[in-house]
């Protein structure tokens, strides 16, 4: 891996002078920074800088800009769509050392953090404050990365996604300039919504170096439950009705029988191996009791079995840990396999139809793909388990994923509810947005990054 | 008013040929379209086209683009910041005839509408569906205009603003191209968030010709109340604590004693002329009972008086009608006066301080300015009542408004919570966003509207 030669010597000299041993071209370090948790082949950067401040990020970007060298921000490495792959070479800026919680303001229900703070670290820092940060994509992702990919996860059905959670940011632009977006005011009508433009831009318009995020009061009461169903259709119908009735569930997750099998093996649980919903309800004691009753009525109407509450915090943690481990548990179903993970999201009225058509399609392929997801938002994943060396299976999985994305888009949905476009889903951008909207996106990219240096090769098709 | 001569003859000929008597250069019609509800002097467009379809808007914009003539979209004319003023001349596109509710999908809690549908018309169309559209800026604004100005209002504390309410849009760009933004999926991580970019862009990046908005289930139970307080500070402290406790109030509005006086005169009510909070609580019967108790405890802790529930729908309507009429009621305090209306929004922890400092400041000026606002969001208005011909008073009011905006920005807030920048608040853009962020906004404007034809002279300082 001859990564040394491709960076201009002046640049490496300047970076080494400025950052000492926090700048490296070590192939092992570069290799580690050129991959994520997806099944995509690695594409290492040519150098890595471990930045500690906004000014340092600005200095790196300014230097790289002068040399027309790409820059890619790195947080926790938990991306699933190749966001970190240095497909055009360049310098990776590792932000994991920017991991300070800068301030927590309980009175305003907000906190300011550096981008390398992970969601678990933020919640640990909030311990005792009576507040929590609800966005939970499963992995212990960095908050900067979560903003960059517009992440969401299990709690989004009630608390929204990163789109709703970020109030303000500091962003380093392509030429090294530092800007502030937004304020700590809860709402504003003052000009273009730069915050929402950088949230979900996957580092292609700028690098987020500080974020102010909304917090929520810890609910007085929490109830969690699992319930097995005779069919996926019965489980999905339960979800759809819960949403349509306006029951303010905090989490409502579907796992198919195969996912449950995987979880039982991995997490040593003994759940019935049938389509299962995981619920969590937040509120006052009376509110949770009311939601509980409404959910129980729906569940029994649709043939739910083994309805089991987990009232104690330890039980709840075990349950959600099992849910969070589902990705790794599913990988364990086919040793040596990696997952090509789909991420469609459709209007809730189309969810049952989309899942049924996709399962029919899957059955015709012979592929193995556990299904799970944040069905309260109409978002579900199929983990297409394939051996990366089995080209035929990989091709079949890609074709399946393409049909699924096309199906969701045809149902007024999106090819990605929460993982982002990255490398692999660029081919759906025209289909989902139309050529004219894509031209508008390209114009914005060109305006803010005329030399295409910010995480090039992502989001926009070549 | 010689508006005829300034539009190129080829353009007027083409518009007349295409639109017949739906295109006019009649001075009266032009004058009507060159003003809003602000105190700014009118600036009529040189022609008005009454458009009925997206394709017609595209045709008008294409023609104007070819002739480098500005275009300004017009909805209900209820703007407060000069958004409709044709300060660079050009053609006004009146969208009020695009007033069809295109579809309501109760199962997905969304509706698609043309931009001229007003919020009241949408709620009328939803009658019997069990759903409602909560965003309520007071005036019966058009939904297109509300999106363009990122409007919010009384319900935003619980249901969010137009930022959170728009799922997808059709937008006509500066050269006439038609794009779709977003999908009906509840969330998406697919590329740049064009929807959020056009929401709040005040027609300076494109013209919104269709919107899909979120709806909410009508609450099972609603309770409304008013409560007078011994001081503004006591009322504001009550609000701050309600928010910090996470009580999910649907509306929590402050009116100072002078506003109540104005309302009593205008709406023939007999409210105690003291600082007053208007509350509305939404939820299940048990949930509302719980919220009610929590609010009552807070209110009595802070010396609340005359706590009065309005349980019957007619009483509630009367109450909120009085609140909505407050703007007109306050104008009635000084016959002949217009209002220079401020719109700052600050973090809730700074709200009491910001209001106190502003009232102190006001007392030193001798200006008359009732204060009211959506204090649950940290947003309040002062209606500076001045005779537009009294240049000294007008100057004093402008200086006061500037100090108030500066105070809010210094408190991590914004100069405009919901009215938008328009003409009058452009001078605060650098102070609020910084020069570098403003440069990024200009780059986006330049990328999408290189000839500066879309509502020119708004948002961005010259």
Describe the secondary-structure layout.
2 copies of one chain form a homodimer.
Chain A: H1 9-19, E1 23-24, H2 27-33, E2 47-50, H3 54-66, E3 71-74, E4 91-94, E5 101-105, E6 110-113, H4 119-125, E7 131-132, H5 143-148, H6 156-159, H7 162-165, E8 166-172, E9 178-181, H8 194-198, E10 207-214, E11 216-217, E12 221-228, H9 232-244, E13 251-255, H10 257-267, E14 276-283, H11 285-301, E15 305-310, H12 313-324, H13 326-331, E16 338-341, H14 351-365, E17 371-374, E18 379-386, H15 391-410, H16 429-433, H17 435-448
Parallel strand pairs in A: 2-4, 3-4
Antiparallel strand pairs in A: 1-2, 5-6, 6-10, 7-11, 8-9, 8-10, 12-14, 12-15, 13-14, 13-17, 16-18, 17-18
Written description of the protein model:
Two copies of one chain form a homodimer. Chain A has 462 residues and is an alpha+beta fold. The first copy, chain A, has four domains: 9-94, Uridine Diphospho-n-acetylenolpyruvylglucosamine Reductase, domain 2, CATH 3.30.43; 101-217, 2-Layer Sandwich (Uridine Diphospho-n-acetylenolpyruvylglucosamine Reductase, domain 3), CATH 3.30.465.10; 221-329, Alpha-Beta Plaits; 334-421, Alpha-Beta Plaits (2-Layer Sandwich). Helices cover 37% and strands 19% of the residues of chain A. In chain A, the strands form four sheets. In chain A, strands 15-12-14-13-17-18-16 form a seven-stranded antiparallel beta sheet, with helices on both faces. In chain A, strands 5-6-10-8-9 form a five-stranded antiparallel beta sheet. A four-stranded mixed beta sheet of chain A has the order 1-2-4-3, with helices on both faces. In chain A, β17 and β18 form a beta hairpin. The longest helix of chain A has 20 residues, at 391-410. In chain A, 59% of the residues are buried. At the A-B interface, β9, α8, β11, α9 and α11 of A face β9, α8, β11, α9 and α11 of B.
